[in-house]
TrEMBL record:
The keyword Hydrolase applies. Residues 202-329 form the Peptidase M20 dimerisation domain. This is M20 family metallopeptidase. One of its GO terms (molecular function) is hydrolase activity. It comes from Halorubrum tibetense.
Amino acid sequence: MTDTDSGESDPTEPDPLLDGVEPPDTERVVELARELIALDTSNPPGDTRAITDWIDAFLADRGVDTERVATDPMKPNLVATIPGTSTRTLLYNGHADTVPYDADEWTHDPLGERDGDRLYGRGATDMKGPLAAMLAAAEAIVEADTDPPVTLALAVVSDEETAGDAGVDTLVESGALDRLAPDACVIGETTCTNGRHSVTVADRGSIWLTLRAEGVAAHGSRPSRGENAIDRLWEAVSLLRRRLTARDLPVPEGFSPVIEESVAYYEPILGAAEARRTFTHPTVNLGTIEGGESVNTVPSTATARLDIRLTAGVETATVLADVRECLAEFPAVSIADASWSVGSYEPADSPLVSTVAETAEAIVAPADAAGDGRVFRRSATGGGDAKTFRHAGVPTVEFAFGTDTVHAVDEYITTTALARNAGMYGRLPWVWADQVGDTST
């Protein structure tokens, strides 16, 4: 069943585990989501000052301590804490910026429009809807006559959609993350769509290469008098793609279950063979290729940019060595620039993963009568802020109910997904405290 199917259980019913904290009703979450969507935070330019002011005031009005952290004044980040009864801290992270939109292409208002059980708007599912659910859960916890079993922290960041330095990187480099001292983090990126549910426990590493080929210019009517740089570059790139995609990647110890879950999750989307290749071999995408000055000239230079992705835990140095060995056969082709990141993962059986997956299963299983209520513990095909948190030593997963309209025209989230998210984020501090066995100071 999809998030919009009827016959679902009410995800906002009080849960005895919450010690009297009742998750907010659906309309409250929808109201908060509409407030956030109405504030244009398209990135670029990525101006999040107004939405940060709004969230800061919302939390301050409820007595929650906040702190602003910024390297770019136009892109502030906000952190907040709700003290709990133990020394452990669970961090919720969400980004306030969105990708741009062209209002002329939309049939609904990109700054928010409700139509039945759908809330349309840029960022509705990526990720102002989940962020609103986090705020609604925080409001419910603060207004209850009880303290959460762990400290609940919230980080609202900027600059995520462009992978800029003003967001999570600023939190890490400024020491704000150290001050929060989170023991675990949940990022509200949409990981569940169309009745298929998952918690993202890993991301892939990447190598971005810029290759440059040198040739000898000549007139296009006499190509044999020159050396075509584009031809040289194409030959090198073609061999590089064949060799790398045929390379078996070493699987980190204990990571095989995540690969199998990932293959099962992506099989309906990519097909069984391609889903398995995605996580057992490098993938190589030729993103750009440029060269030449005119159609009647043999090009003397050419450049290409490649995006190489690697399964979590695979060391980029070994793959870069393969790249250099391959290019050694092409003396006219060199690496002009290279940047890379190492994929990261949280073990599939860790307390954090178990907390999120089992809580989600408890919410969706009664409603998804046509399915098995399965929540996959999978890797993402790319990478984002979770990688930064994990490399900073914070166990991190991504989870949110939503739709498959991320970055699309007429992006939307369902009211059911919003309510489910609020129920999830309201429950997690209690379930996680139970999983780690630390419920008091």
